[in-house]
Design goal:
It contains 5 helices and 9 strands. A hairpin with a 5-residue loop joins strand 8 and strand 9. The longest helix is centred in the N-terminal third of the chain and has 11 residues. The protein is α/β, with parallel strands linked by helices and about 150 residues long. The radius of gyration is 14 Å and the shape is globular. It has a single domain, classed as Glutaredoxin, CATH 3.40.30.10. The model has no long low-confidence stretch (mean pLDDT about 95).
Length: about 150
């Protein structure tokens, strides 16, 4: 089910400082919601670093990035520190946001019973409506970063 044209499911998740961040608190800005399955897992590192590299252009477009994974806030904090990420990384510990966005991924990394989120990106407008969405067929795929930028 596509979320494009619909209000984005709201969520409140904890950031690397263990503080709650509500998606609804970002109304008035464009938001890139970028789900990634696991910190320090190669492609996730690359993806989040590309968003960091493009952050100035995104900020100029009144946009912000939220990276979301099922990792703990402690792992996300180390991930952000290691890669110099200055945008919010949020912990979806119970996969509630991933479920709401339809991006759960069963048996991640070929581990039976290990559920994570798939790699997926949603662009929201200032009113919180999804204007662009992409989800990989599997977590090893990357989004078209130029298409994300164009959608912003």
């Amino acid at each position: 089910m596509s979320l494009v044209g619909k209000p984005a499911p709201d969520f409140t998740l904890i950031n690397t400082g263990k503080k709650p961040v509500a998606l609804s608190s970002l109304r008035g800005k464009k938001v890139i919601v970028a789900f990634y399955p696991a910190a320090f897992s190669g492609i996730c590192d690359k993806e989040m670093c590309i968003f960091q590299d493009r952050l100035a252009a995104l900020n100029d477009a009144n946009a912000t990035v939220l990276g979301i994974s099922p990792d703990s806030p402690f792992a996300n904090a180390k991930f952000a520190e290691t890669h110099g990420l200055s945008f919010e990384l949020l912990s979806d510990l119970h996969l509630d946001a991933a479920r709401a966005y339809g991006v759960l991924f069963e048996n991640f990394a070929f581990v039976e019973g290990y559920t994570a989120c798939n790699r997926a990106v949603f662009v929201l407008d200032e009113s919180g409506v999804v204007t662009w969405a992409w989800a990989g067929e599997h977590p090893g795929m990357e989004p078209d970063y130029d298409a994300v930028m164009a959608a912003v």
